[in-house]
Write a structure and sequence with these properties.
single chain; about 270 residues; mainly beta; SH3 type barrels; Fumarylacetoacetate hydrolase, domain 2; 2 domains; twelve-stranded mixed sheet; five-stranded mixed sheet; globular
């Protein structure tokens, strides 16, 4: 099942109470089947109930399928990616955070900050947490904490990352540096799927989740020993080799088979005032 969030033009819907006529759009939740979005209600991710209303995908605008309280990223989780950056393989999962303010959805613009000359794409598979998880016991099935999987682009100001040495925060946390979507796939076979990143139609990255150094089970248990994972939180599982620099005007696509294509335009923003 492909879960999504979308804006529905007000002209296509009867405005619910509290929404003024003429509002540009109405935020809804849905299930995507083929080229049709079926509206659902209920708490995330459980309690999904279809309302009976549906619209063609072409009539709605998909937004991030979830707004997490935090995005936990796993670094160097593909051996070839660690090698291309000259980094040793970690003995334990290497984690860092991105803020919720960095999240954008499909077809939104990645903004290149004026203070960076090297902003890289990092296409990734991400797992979405479905229920509160903190220090799960060894006997618990970790998959009961998973709502599903989605595509993610861990956009990184690589020159700032090198300047800040061991500190990833500034390089990873700019607004728009975490495209997510287009949907959450609740039924996903890690062993069978693959990841591909394209820039202007040219393939730059390829990998398989089966090649992860640390499994999803290991990663969730590792993270949950440190912090409470809440419904809607995202863990980005690492990027395969082939990272490279984005330029203004580029179109970057992260595709995970079985989920879909996360597409974003790249634009340049001016320097921040002193």
């Amino acid at each position: 099942m492909k879960l999504c969030r979308f804006h529905l033009p007000a002209a296509l819907a009867k405005n619910p109470p509290g929404v003024k006529p003429g509002d540009d759009s109405l935020l809804r939740r849905g299930v995507l089947r083929g080229e049709t979005v079926h509206e659902i209600t209920g708490d995330f991710p459980e309690g999904r109930t279809e309302t009976g209303r549906a619209w063609p995908l072409s009539d709605v605008r998909l937004v991030p399928p979830v707004i997490p309280s935090k995005i936990v990223c796993v670094g160097r989780n593909y051996s070839e990616h660690a090698a291309e950056l000259g980094n040793p393989l970690p003995k334990d999962p290497l984690i860092f955070l991105k803020p919720s303010t960095s999240v954008i959805g499909p077809d939104e613009a990645i903004c290149l900050p004026g203070i960076s000359d090297q902003v890289d794409y990092e296409g990734e598979l991400a797992v979405v947490i479905g229920r509160r998880c903190f220090r799960p016991v060894s006997s618990e099935d970790i998959h009961t904490f998973i709502a599903g999987y989605t595509c993610l682009n861990d956009v990184t100001a690589r020159d700032l990352q090198k300047k800040d040495v061991a500190q990833f925060t500034r390089a990873k946390c700019f607004d728009t540096f975490c495209p997510v979507g287009p949907v959450i796939e609740t039924e996903f076979d890690l062993a069978a799927e693959h990841i591909e990143t394209r820039v202007n139609g040219q393939v730059r990255q390829e990998g398989r989740p089966a090649e992860l150094l640390f499994s999803v089970d290991v990663i969730i248990r590792w993270v949950a020993q440190v912090m409470t994972l809440l419904p809607g939180d995202i863990i980005a599982l690492g990027t395969p080799p082939g990272v490279g620099t984005l330029r203004a005007g580029d179109v970057v696509e992260v595709e995970v088979s079985g989920i879909g294509v996360l597409r974003n335009l790249v634009v340049r923003v001016p320097d921040m005032p002193a």
